[in-house]
Design a protein that fits this description.
With about 280 residues, this protein is an all-alpha fold. It has helices spanning about 5-50, 60-70, 70-105, 110-125, 125-135, 140-165, 170-175, 180-220, 225-235, 240-265.
Length: about 280
């Protein structure tokens, strides 16, 4: 066999092997979770029907789907209200947390001053502070946004501060020997090193933002999925409440994946995305 033919044959074999591995990865990462979810739904449906569980205790997935779709426009309106609160609280946490993390890592005095206050704020149960915020800020969307911010910002501060402090000491000494200013050192060295940690904090923060928004809606609201859950349970519309909970879960997953996509597109060199060992 000519040498060129042998090389082309081996290259074709390598491409086929790579394609097969890609299909296997897709099957493992997409098909297996989808099949397990379908199996769980089938078991849920069968168990409720066989055991004849009342729908106000545990509705079947078919009932949840039917009743939620029947209230489609109302559910959509509440979903958009919750999504707006989640995004506003999350963006507020990003705007405040990153400068706080830079200040904490840039100055020991700032760290000793700010860290105790941050820990104190995190220690206060958000369900307890929500009624106080409503009295102080009024019965509008602002208290819910503030609760969402309070739930989300602390993990982001800690993650960003940890990342900013992860720079190897020899790099810092090298740049200091070049008489580089502190802020230029942070911008050129510390922030790139902190990117994987920051995105790790962003993933946690966006998931917690959904929780914070619902906590605020449970306390006082006239819109949102948390409000829909409360009113549905008050009138024993359990399937609608379950539908709202499922939508909240899907919202959290979608927002989490949006942060993952932003990381992969704009910071492909970041290695913060964990991978489950096979």
């Amino acid at each position: 066999m000519p040498k060129e033919s042998a090389l082309s044959f081996s290259e074709a074999g390598a491409r086929k092997a790579t394609s097969a591995r890609g299909l296997a990865d897709v099957g493992r990462d997409v098909l297996l979770p989808a099949l397990s979810l379908v199996a769980m739904v089938i078991l849920w449906e069968g168990a409720v029907r066989v055991l004849r569980v009342p729908n106000f205790i545990l509705p079947a997935p078919s009932e949840i789907t039917r009743d939620t779709i029947a209230m489609g426009p109302v559910v959509l309106w509440h979903t958009l209200a919750t999504l707006r609160t989640v995004l506003l609280g999350f963006l507020l946490s990003v705007v405040i947390s990153l400068p706080l993390a830079i200040a904490i890592t840039a100055s020991e005095t700032a760290a000793r001053t700010l860290y105790p206050a941050l820990v104190l704020m995190q220690s206060v149960p958000k369900v307890a502070i929500a009624p106080i915020l409503i009295i102080a800020l009024g019965a509008n969307e602002l208290p819910r946004v503030v609760v969402t911010f309070l739930v989300a910002f602390f993990p982001l501060v800690v993650a960003a501060a940890t990342g900013l402090q992860s720079v190897p000491p020899e790099f810092i000494e090298l740049w200091r020997s070049l008489r580089v200013s502190r802020w230029k050192l942070i911008w050129r060295i510390s922030l790139p090193y902190a990117v994987p940690f920051v995105f790790g904090g962003l993933k946690v923060a966006i998931a917690l933002s959904v929780v914070g928004a619902v906590v605020g809606e449970f306390v006082a609201a006239n819109q949102g999925l948390g409000y829909l859950i409360s009113t549905s349970m008050a009138f024993f519309k359990t399937p609608v409440a379950w539908g709202a909970m499922i939508i909240l879960s899907m919202m959290g997953i979608a927002l989490f994946q949006a942060v993952v996509v932003v990381e992969r597109v704009f910071f492909p060199w970041s290695t913060s995305t964990p991978r489950i060992a096979s």
